[in-house]
Structure formats: structure tokens, C-alpha cells
């Protein structure tokens, strides 16, 4: 429904069909979005033939992403789809190949990349002229109920892709390897491990440290994590909301260097946040042919961070991203 509202609210898009394996859910969505007599169906190929869309938006569950996306690409249509790209690396590789074979764009919507304070934070991080450590703390205690309470590794599998992808965005670097431990405290209301600590080596030589919990009661962080980047010129922090801070070295004599303090105000005037931002970038890529953020052959590196972290947690050894990415 969130995607439905985004598409309805965008002046450049129109929904021509709503497809769901359960057509009663497609009809319900069409009614709630007041789409009139828009086509509803349970078969993608037939609906495409009848409604002639320009592109497909895939908001199916992760286990269905590979079949939906590959079919749409084979039908000659570009796709923007929800994260995580796939429920395994094998599927993700098939999807990248399907996009290349069809010569059609498949972009994964990493909606948390479209965030004005985070873009400003990236500029502060760049200004440090080299980062040694980037830390993200993610501590929340959502009582979802439903599938997340029963799935294995709910934090790593369902959520960490956002934070890992944000780290790539902030550092403008790719992952090289990871050491990860995941665990479940005795009081956790999840069956699977709800906590994880992961340390990534990145291609710029920096280390990205993720500390996360999905059963953390009290003093919760933002859903966008709490960040610290420590670099050549100083340190920059972002609380994942609107508090940006930077301290840069001015004079280096004495025990501690003298630093400047700045708390830049967030400038979010007219900014397209979240899904609005990813849809705008997708439409622009279709029009201009430029490669958008989230393009599948790039986004698979963020997905590999998740599966490499899981692999390391399982074996107790450091996992190489290249091994997880495969050929
Ligand atoms: N970016 C975010 O913050 C964010 C937030 C929520 C969900 N998501 C992502 O969105 C996706 C969907 O999540 P959800 O919570 O809306 O799931 P959901 O289960 O509520 O809805 C998925 C729908 O897809 C339908 N479906 C299943 N298989 C299908 C198929 N093969 N073809 C067509 N329809 C099919 C189901 O019947 C269901 O109606 C997931 O990948 C999830 O990770 C992202």
C-alpha cells in the first residue's frame, strides 16, 4: 500500500494494473487506493499483455522477488523492486543475469538512501579526508508479532541490509570481508537471533562496525542508526535523525589537539524522502539511461554483506565478500 500511495501521489506515474497471487488482496488495494476500474489479476504475463505497462514495481515478499523480477525482465520490462533483492545469493545472481540478458534496468529500492540529513552527513564524512572507523549503533525493541518473531536471524536477514547499504553509501566504498557474531538474549521475544555485532573491512581500508539489537528496550536509536565516523581530520556524528556534528582538528600541539565544533542545520527544503526519492531516481534513469543507486549489479554487494555476515556467524571465521558474491 505504501508503494501504491507513492505511485498515486507521483504526477508522472499511473497504476494500470495491480497483481497479487491472491486477487482479493489486489482488489482490496485497488479499492483503498481508489483506482476505479483498474485491472486486477493474479498472472503477471497476462496482465502485462492486457495493460501494457512501462515498468513493474515488485512489492512481493523476498521469497518471490526472483521469480517476479525475472519474469518481468523476460517480458521486456524494467523493474523497481523492494529490498532485499533476494532470499539467497544464487537467486540474486540469476536476477542480475536476467537484467543483463534482457538489457533492462532492475533497480532495488533502498529507500533509506533518500534522506536529506544522511546526504549532509556523507558530505561531512567526505570532508574528513579519509575515514578509519565508521560505527553504526542500531538498538530498537519493536514487538512486531508475525513472521519476524519466528524467522531465523531476524535482525540480519530482515533489517541489516538498510544499515549495511547506508555504510557503503556513506563511505563510497565496497565491503571486502566481515567477522560477525549473532546471538539471542534470554529475554528476547524472537525465536531467531535478534542481536548481531559485525566488523567489516572496506575497500578504502576503513572498518565499518555494526552493533545491533531488535530486542533493546529503552533509549532506542533511530531506525537509521546512530553513526560515528572517525577520520584524518576529525570526527563526525549523526544521530540518524536531525543532529549532525563535526569536530575538526585546528591545532595539534599539546596532549589533545584543538578542534572546531560545528552542528550544521539540516536543509531538507523540497527533498524527496524514501520511496518518493527512489521512484524519482528510477524514472530519471529510465529517461536518461543513467545508472541509478540500487541498480542490481551494484546492490548485490549490499546483499552480499548480509549473507557474508550470516556465513561468518555460522562458521565463527571471517568471511570474504568475494566468496559470497561468487563468479
Ligand atoms: N523499505 C522498507 O522500509 C520496507 C518496509 C516494509 C516492507 N518492505 C519490503 O517490501 C516487500 C513486501 O513486504 P510486505 O510487508 O509488504 O509483505 P506483505 O506480505 O504484506 O505483502 C506482499 C504481497 O505480495 C503478494 N505476493 C506473494 N507472492 C507473490 C507473487 N509471486 N506475485 C505477486 N504477488 C505476490 C502477497 O499475496 C501479499 O499480498 C518485502 O521485500 C519487504 O522487505 C520494505
General description of the model:
With 327 residues, this protein is α/β, with parallel strands linked by helices. The protein folds into two domains: 2-112 and 275-296, NAD(P)-binding Rossmann-like Domain (Rossmann fold); 115-266 and 302-321, Dihydrodipicolinate Reductase, domain 2 (2-Layer Sandwich). The chain has eleven helices and 14 strands. The strands form three sheets. A nine-stranded mixed β-sheet has the order 13-12-11-10-6-9-8-7-14. Helix 5 (89-102) runs antiparallel to helix 10 (296-315) and helix 8 crosses helix 10. The longest helix is centred in the last third of the chain and has 20 residues, at 296-315. The model has no long low-confidence stretch (mean pLDDT 97). The structure holds nicotinamide-adenine-dinucleotide. Nicotinamide-adenine-dinucleotide (NAD) is lined by residues 19-22, 25, 59-62, 64, 67-68, 82-83, 111. Nicotinamide-adenine-dinucleotide (NAD) binds at residues 19-22, 25, 59-62, 64, 67-68, 82-83, 111.
What order do the helices and strands come in, and which of them pair?
Elements (H helix, E strand, L loop, with lengths): L1 H8 L7 E3 L3 H10 L6 E3 L2 H8 L4 E3 L3 H13 L4 E4 L6 H14 L3 E4 L6 H12 L3 E9 L7 H4 L3 H18 L3 E9 L11 E8 L4 E7 L12 E6 L2 E5 L5 E8 L6 E5 L11 H15 L7 H20 L3 E2 H5 L2
Helix pairs in contact: 4-5, 5-10, 8-10
The structure holds nicotinamide-adenine-dinucleotide.
Nicotinamide-adenine-dinucleotide binds next to helix 4.
Keywords:
327 residues, alpha/beta, Rossmann fold, Dihydrodipicolinate Reductase, domain 2, nine-stranded mixed sheet, three-stranded parallel sheet, 11 helices, 14 strands, binds nicotinamide-adenine-dinucleotide
Amino acid at each position: 500500500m505504501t508503494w501504491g500511495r507513492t505511485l498515486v501521489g507521483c504526477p508522472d506515474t499511473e497504476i494500470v494494473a495491480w497483481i497479487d497471487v491472491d486477487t482479493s488482496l489486489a482488489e482490496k488495494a485497488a479499492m483503498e487506493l481508489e483506482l476505479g476500474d483498474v485491472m486486477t489479476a493474479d498472472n503477471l504475463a497476462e496482465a502485462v499483455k492486457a495493460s501494457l505497462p512501462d515498468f513493474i514495481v515488485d512489492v512481493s515478499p523476498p521469497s518471490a522477488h526472483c521469480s517476479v523480477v525475472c519474469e518481468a525482465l523476460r517480458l521486456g520490462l524494467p523493474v523497481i523492486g523492494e529490498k532485499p533483492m533476494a532470499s539467497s545469493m544464487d537467486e540474486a545472481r540469476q536476477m542480475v543475469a536476467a537484467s543483463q540478458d534482457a538489457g533492462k534496468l532492475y533497480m532495488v529500492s533502498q529507500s533509506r538512501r533518500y534522506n536529506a540529513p544522511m546526504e549532509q552527513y556523507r558530505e561531512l564524512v567526505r570532508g574528513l579526508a579519509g575515514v578509519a572507523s565508521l560505527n553504526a549503533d542500531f538498538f530498537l525493541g519493536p514487538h512486531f508479532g508475525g513472521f519476524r518473531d519466528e524467522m531465523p536471524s531476524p535482525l540480519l536477514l530482515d533489517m541489516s541490509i538498510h544499515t549495511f547499504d547506508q555504510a557503503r553509501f556513506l563511505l563510497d566504498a565496497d565491503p571486502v570481508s566481515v567477522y560477525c557474531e549473532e546471538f539471542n538474549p534470554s529475554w528476547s521475544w524472537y525465536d531467531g537471533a535478534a542481536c548481531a555485532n559485525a566488523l567489516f573491512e572496506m575497500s578504502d581500508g576503513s572498518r565499518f562496525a555494526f552493533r545491533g539489537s531488535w530486542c533493546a528496550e529503552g533509549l532506542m536509536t533511530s531506525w537509521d542508526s546512530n553513526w560515528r565516523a572517525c577520520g584524518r581530520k576529525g570526527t563526525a556524528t549523526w544521530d540518524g535523525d536531525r543532529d549532525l556534528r563535526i569536530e575538526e582538528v585546528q591545532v595539534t600541539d599539546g596532549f589533545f589537539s584543538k578542534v572546531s565544533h560545528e552542528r550544521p542545520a539540516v536543509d531538507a527544503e523540497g527533498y524527496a524522502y524514501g520511496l518518493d526519492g527512489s521512484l524519482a531516481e528510477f524514472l530519471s534513469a529510465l529517461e536518461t539511461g543513467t545508472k541509478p543507486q540500487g541498480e542490481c549489479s551494484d546492490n548485490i554487494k549490499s546483499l552480499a554483506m548480509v549473507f557474508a555476515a550470516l556465513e561468518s556467524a555460522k562458521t565463527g571465521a571471517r568471511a570474504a565478500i568475494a566468496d559470497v558474491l561468487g563468479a
